[in-house]
Q: What sequence folds into this?
C-alpha cells in the first residue's frame, strides 16, 4: 500500500511516497536554508511563500520518482501541526485540494508523531520505548506503547534544545543554523573548560535550556576573551548531558529497555556517540534514524499516515492546521 | 513603576499581578536582553488566563503562539524577526481582536504597536537580580 506524505511544517517543503509504512519509495526535501541564512533564522512569511512555489514541483517529483501514479496512492498524509501556521497552511490546503480532485482519502498527522515514527523506516524497535524528539522547535520525551499511543513524560519549560544552539551560535558570532556550526567548532574545544548549569527540573522529567543560554551570555560578558571553541564545547556538553540524563532516567523509571531519538538535534555527532555509550552501560538499546531522517521530511509523515489509514482515521475538508499542538492532547 | 526580582518565581509573580490588571485588547510589550526573564514573565501572566505555565515555552521558533482560552492569548516573540519583516506578520490582526497580546523583543515592532500598549523592561543589575520597569499601567 502506498501513502503520499506531505510536510510543510517549518522551512522545508517535502513530499514522499512510502510503501506499507516502512519502505521509502521516494523522499524529496527542498531545503530553504539558503533563503533564511542571511536572516539568522527562519522568516515565516518568506517560508510560506517559498512553500507555495515549491509544493507542486516537490509533490510532482515525489510521485515521478516513485514510478507510481495518483491512482496507486491509497491515502494522502499531511502534517497538521505543530509548526509555523503559514507554512502548515500551504501543505494542508494543497493536500485537501489533491484529496478532493483525485478522490484519495486524507489523514492528518501530528508532526511530532512523524518524528517518532521515522525510525520505522529503517528499523523495528519493539514497544514500549522512550522517544526523545529534539529539534529547533521541540524538545519532549514520550513513552510510546504502540502506534498512536503516546504519553508525554516531560518537555522543555522554555527553549527547545536546537533553539538554544541557534541562540548561543548567535552570541558567539556564528551563523545559522547553529547546531551543525557548534557541533563542528566544539570538536576543537575543551568541554570541561567551563561548568555551565544543567537545567533539570526537580521531581519531573522536564528540562530547561534558558538558564544555560543565560549562563553563556553572562560568561561571555564577564570573559569576552574566552576561547569560542571552549565555550561551544562546554555548552554542547551541558545540552547533551541534560538530554541523555533525562532520557535514560525516563527509560529506567518506566522500566523501558529501548530509547528512540529523532528530530534535527538527533543528527548531532556528539549526542549520537554519547547516548550510545551511556545507554550501553545501562543495558538500554538505542535507535537512531539516519541523519537525513532526523531532520524534517515527509517520509516520516507518510509512515505515520499508514498506521492511521489502517485504523480508518480519515479526516474531512474541515481540517485546519494548528501552530501549537502537543502530541497526546485532545486534538494532537 | 520599578520593581526588583531576585529569582524566577518573583518574576512570575510580577507577571501574574500584571495579568490580573489586563483587559481584552491589551497589548503588553516586553523589552530585555537574552535571559532577562521575558518568557518567565509571560508564564506568570498567562497563568491568569488559565494557561498552564508548562504550556508557555519560548515562542522564538513559531514567532506567534495562539492559545484559544476564554480570553484569547497571543504570545509573540520577535527574536528571529528583523524590523523590515515585521509588517508581513500581520500583527494588527491580533491587536484588534478581543484577546491579550504579549510581545517579546517588542523593539523590533516599533511603529506597529499601539500607543496605548503597556511596556515592561527587564534589566540585569547583576547575575541574579533583575530590575523590572512597568509603564502604562499601575499594579
A:
Amino acid at each position: 500500500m502506498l501513502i503520499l506524505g506531505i510536510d510543510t511544517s517549518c522551512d522545508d517543503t517535502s513530499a514522499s511516497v512510502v510503501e506499507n509504512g516502512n519502505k521509502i519509495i521516494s523522499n524529496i526535501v527542498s531545503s530553504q536554508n539558503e533563503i533564511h541564512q542571511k536572516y539568522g533564522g527562519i522568516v515565516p512569511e518568506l517560508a510560506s511563500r517559498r512553500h507555495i512555489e515549491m509544493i507542486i514541483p516537490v509533490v510532482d517529483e515525489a510521485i515521478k520518482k516513485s514510478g507510481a501514479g495518483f491512482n496507486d496512492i491509497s491515502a494522502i498524509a499531511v502534517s497538521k501541526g505543530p509548526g509555523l501556521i503559514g507554512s502548515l497552511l500551504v501543505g494542508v490546503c494543497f493536500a485537501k485540494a489533491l484529496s478532493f480532485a483525485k478522490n484519495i482519502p486524507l489523514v492528518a498527522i501530528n508532526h511530532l508523531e512523524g518524528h517518532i515514527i521515522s525510525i520505522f523506516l529503517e528499523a523495528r524497535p519493539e514497544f514500549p520505548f522512550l522517544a526523545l524528539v529534539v529539534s529547533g522547535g521541540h524538545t519532549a520525551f514520550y513513552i510510546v506503547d504502540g502506534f498512536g499511543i503516546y504519553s508525554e513524560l516531560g518537555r522543555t519549560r522554555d527553549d527547545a534544545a536546537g533553539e538554544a544552539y541557534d541562540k548561543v551560535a548567535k552570541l558567539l558570532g556564528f551563523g545559522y543554523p547553529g547546531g551543525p556550526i557548534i557541533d563542528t567548532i566544539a570538536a576543537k574545544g575543551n568541554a570541561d573548560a567551563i561548568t555551565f548549569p544543567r537545567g533539570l527540573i526537580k521531581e519531573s522529567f522536564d528540562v530547561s535550556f534558558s538558564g544555560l543560554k543565560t549562563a553563556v551570555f553572562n560568561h561571555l560578558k564577564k570573559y569576552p576573551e574566552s576561547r569560542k571553541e571552549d565555550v561551544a564545547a562546554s555548552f554542547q556538553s551541558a545540552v547533551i548531558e541534560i538530554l541523555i540524563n533525562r532520557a535514560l532516567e525516563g527509560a529506567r523509571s518506566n522500566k523501558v529497555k529501548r530509547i528512540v531519538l529523532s528530530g534535527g538535534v538527533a543528527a548531532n555527532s556528539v549526542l549520537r556517540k554519547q547516548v550510545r555509550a551511556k545507554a550501553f552501560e545501562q543495558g538500554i538499546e538505542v535507535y537512531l534514524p539516519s541523519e537525513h531522517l532526523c531532520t524534517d521530511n515527509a517520509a516520516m509523515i507518510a509512515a505515520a499516515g499508514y498506521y492511521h489509514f489502517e485504523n480508518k482515521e480519515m479526516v474531512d475538508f474541515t481540517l485546519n492546521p494548528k501552530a501549537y499542538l502537543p502530541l497526546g492532547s485532545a486534538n494532537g | 513603576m520599578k520593581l526588583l526580582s531576585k529569582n524566577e518565581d518573583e518574576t512570575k509573580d510580577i507577571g501574574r499581578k500584571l495579568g490580573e490588571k489586563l483587559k481584552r485588547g491589551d497589548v503588553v510589550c516586553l523589552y530585555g536582553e537574552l535571559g532577562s526573564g521575558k518568557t518567565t514573565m509571560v508564564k506568570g501572566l498567562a497563568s491568569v488566563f488559565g494557561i498552564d505555565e508548562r504550556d508557555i515555552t519560548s515562542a522564538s521558533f513559531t514567532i506567534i503562539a495562539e492559545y484559544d482560552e476564554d480570553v484569547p492569548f497571543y504570545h509573540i516573540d520577535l527574536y528571529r524577526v528583523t524590523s523590515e519583516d515585521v509588517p508581513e506578520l500581520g500583527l494588527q490582526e491580533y491587536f484588534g481582536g478581543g484577546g491579550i497580546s504579549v510581545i517579546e523583543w517588542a523593539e523590533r515592532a516599533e511603529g506597529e504597536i499601539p500607543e496605548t500598549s503597556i511596556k515592561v523592561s527587564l534589566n540585569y543589575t547583576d547575575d541574579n537580580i533583575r530590575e523590572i520597569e512597568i509603564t502604562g499601567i499601575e499594579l
